[in-house]
Amino acid sequence: MKNISSIIKLLKTEYPVVMCTLDFFTPLQLLISTQLAAQCTDERVNQVTPGLFNKYKTVYDFAYADIEELESYIRPTGFYHNKAKNIKACCKKLIDEFNEIIPDNIDELITLPGVGRKTANVIIAEVFHKPAIIVDTHAKRLSNRIGLSDNTDPDKIEQDLKEILPPEESSNFCHRLVFHGRKVCNARKPKCDLCVINKYCRYFNQKKI
């Protein structure tokens, strides 16, 4: 996309400081939090994890947790039966196959139960500080609206963004899409007149026709 450098610059000016909106102190905590964030807001996850991480501190604590007790901690995040099962299996696999160490590459990360490409990319970006493209609901919506991708599948959107984003900008660009999606380009009624990138946005320009 020919305007991507201008879009990057404008969003960087609008949101100069961005970060992952999940609260965590260790790589394991982030891995668990990203799994809990599936079909759940980061805000809700951040309300749950202080108590969760006070109870379960190590990969062994999660791997050998009583399933019903673990479910009781994560119930507010939704789909807690499946999430608890995946968290236990994920941590068991980390112990059995990865020497308790979280992998630093996508191919191995996505072999962990409950870890898809979105979760894997969060880990790659936040733990290992490598270029990564995180396609959450905000990145998906804004990529389609702006015209950065015509795909609806997150994996295909990831590939579309990879083709146009400089690697060093990729993860922070995705964070900025989250911030912009919450502040301006919300799902139901985007505030197009307040949008700093509206002149480059397909949705805005089609509205004017």
Describe this protein's structure.
It is elongated and about 55 Å long. With 209 residues, it is mostly helical. It folds into two domains: 4-18 and 133-208, Helix-hairpin-Helix base-excision DNA repair enzymes (C-terminal) (Endonuclease Iii, domain 2, Orthogonal Bundle), CATH 1.10.1670; 27-126, Hypothetical protein, domain 2 (Endonuclease III, domain 1, Orthogonal Bundle). The two termini are 21 Å apart. It has twelve helices and no strands.
Instruction: Kindly name the structural category.
Output: mainly alpha
Task: Compute the number of strand runs.
Answer: 0
Low-pLDDT regions? none
Q: How is the quaternary structure best described? A: single chain
CATH fold-level assignment of the largest domain? Endonuclease III, domain 1
Residue share in β-strands: under 5%
Considering DSSP H and I runs of 4 or more, what fraction of the residues is helical?
55-70%
Count of separate structural domains: 2
CATH class of the largest domain: Mainly Alpha
User: Can you tell me the overall shape?
Assistant: elongated
Written as H for each helix and E for each strand, in order along the chain, the element string is HHHHHHHHHHHH
Characterize the biggest β-sheet.
none
The helix tally amounts to: 12
Instruction: Give the name of the CATH architecture of the largest domain.
Output: Orthogonal Bundle
CATH superfamily of the largest domain: Hypothetical protein, domain 2
- End-to-end C-alpha gap: 21 Å
Radius of gyration: 18 Å
Q: If you average the pLDDT, what whole number results?
A: 96
